[in-house]
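Continuing the batch. This is chain 6 of the set; chains 1 through 5 are on the previous pages. Same settings as before, nothing changed between runs. Recording input and output for traceability.
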Amino acid sequence: MEFLLSLTAWGMEKPKAYGLFHLVFLIGGLAACVFFAWLFRKSSEKTNKNIMLSVGGFLLISEVYKQLFYTYIKGHGEYQWWIFPFQLCSVPMYLCLIIPFLKEGKIKRALYNFLASYNLLGGFLALFEPSGLSHEYVTLTLHAFIWHLLLAFIGFYLIASGRAGRKLKDFLPSIVIFLILCGIAETVNIICTLALGVTDINMFYISPFRTNPIIVFKQIQQATHWALNMVLYPTMITLGAFIFFVIGIYVRKLIQKIKSKRAV
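Output for chain 6:
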């Protein structure tokens, strides 16, 4: 396995923030996301299912590759727990594969709205501050950039197609989903640390045993207490997700208004 993966271990200099590589993916990538989201805005339920499964399948396959690469190339056979696939931006991999098999109803709509708010935020933040996306290997860097562009695409697409972002009250179930995921993430953090002796796991960056690596929150946690980070960080993420959700609603309404005027 290590030999096979080494065949794809092409080295590269880490792309600089707002350098050519980053700008091509940031501007060109987001433009492509908007274009395809608009292209599929009138998709049937069958097409929607295929889109979700295709994105979810790609994310799953690429994540398996990433996990193996980190284990055998970077970890020399030892699993790297810090990349355990349960960060906020990992969640779409699971949801895109689950949603197509759910019946129409509150749960499915809530998951759509979650993808169009929390994960759209996650994709944007990572793309605009790309330090966590840039690696010394070509495949890992491409994986990270494409992954977060797909998060942006799914968010744009769900809003453009009317499957998410219809009313402000639709955001409330997304908060519940996020809190449930935070609970799962913290459980993973505690079990892996106390029961398995893992020293480098910090899912959702709320572990009581690790410092939040995100700028500002890192300094706040170091100066105060982990419990403050556990409350403050999810709260700010929720605020950011809500802002993205509101923007999505009003952009969609603006487009509909323009279309109505043209029809007249």
